[in-house]
Amino acid sequence: MIMNIMVAGLGKLGLPLAAVIANAGNKVLGYDKSLPLIESLKNNSFHSSEPGLLELLQKNNNNLEFYSALNNDVLKNINLIFIVVPTPSLPSGAFSNEFIGKTISEIGKVRIPKTRRELVICIVSTVMPGSCDGEINEYLKTAFGPYEDNVGLCYHPEFIALGSVIKNLQFPDYQLLGVSKSWVLDSVEPIFKSITKSNVALLKMSLLEAEIVKLAVNNFLTIKISFANSLLQLEDRFKSVNFHTVTEAIGLDSRIGLKYLRAGAPYGGPCFPRDTAAMAKLFEDSSVESSFAKFTSKVNQDFNDYLVKKILNQTNKSDIIGILGVSYKENTPVIDGSSAISIAIGLLKEGMKIYTWDDEQAAIPNDSITSIGLEEILNKCDFFVITRNTKYKYFIIEKLKYDNKKYLDLWN
Predict the structure, then answer these.
(1) Is the pTM of this model over 0.70?
(2) End-to-end CA, the chain
(3) Does the domain at residues 314-412 carry the CATH identifier 3.90.1030.10?
(4) How far is CA 234 from each of CA 266, 298, 303, 342, rounded to the nearest angstrom?
(5) Could you give the 3-state DSSP secondary structure of residue 356?
């Protein structure tokens, strides 16, 4: 079944989602307030390092239209809207629904006075548990007034990682759907079946249950990462032990699993740190005193401090340190929650001189830290921290060994 769909918010997840839905044969309207972004998509000057995204956009050009403003002609045939806008973290750790509310208000002003057709609004942005039944439901009532019964709400958070978004959308472990009304599932299920290239379970549940699942999954993963990293800190006592061998053995237990149980860098990115903080806030608001979420955040920070001390113990004050890899993972320039930044700032506070290089041209926003080219940094620095994989990693390690320079590879 071909549907007319709008994706509101064309960021790091929204645009790949629009491309994948269009690739399944659906007509997709992409909406974002950023005029430069929309213009670049229309004139084919848009660039992204996200694997597969540019190819999908080009392949499905006939099924994609992009707008920076809404009107009734644009929305008249739309029956499903995905909202993928930012939900910034507040100082408390909770998420703000401000941009979701503004987007719903914009849609309501344009579309509802003209039609009573059923409309499904699917929230993809991560929200605090209770948001859909609470604040977001109030947004819907305000925006759609007497037509509220014709509007259904769905919560569908995606479990993706930057650098593999297209793959994660097409080959998920499962599809998570929280719905407000039974007919909503009939509207959205065909879309998710059309974009998924593997046979996976579609988990239908309440809005609140889906909200909790999203935070709980990411929190459980950060617990696994922090546990593996805490084991790695024992290597200073048991120097003959390979702790990658230890964690691999632990992960072979079917009750535990290997994924996310490899010691390496502190967890980072735009999701894990803030989802863990949000989970801690949820426990706090629920008067649950023993919170793994709060403890996991502390372990992650402690591990970062441990790495800084480890580097300082292997260097002299006169050494120049090179950070190889600034973005939080390969195939993306995103620096949110980057372990490279945390380590570099920690070293800077100890008076160390630092240069960085990144194959995605990511840089640390600090005037005291300079980003330079790969050849220059390999020649200029005395000690190196390899924070993540790059396609140049084999060349880098061979070069450092040949030049007899010390390095710390966080993943080996």
Answers:
(1) yes
(2) 48
(3) no
(4) 16, 17, 12, 21
(5) strand
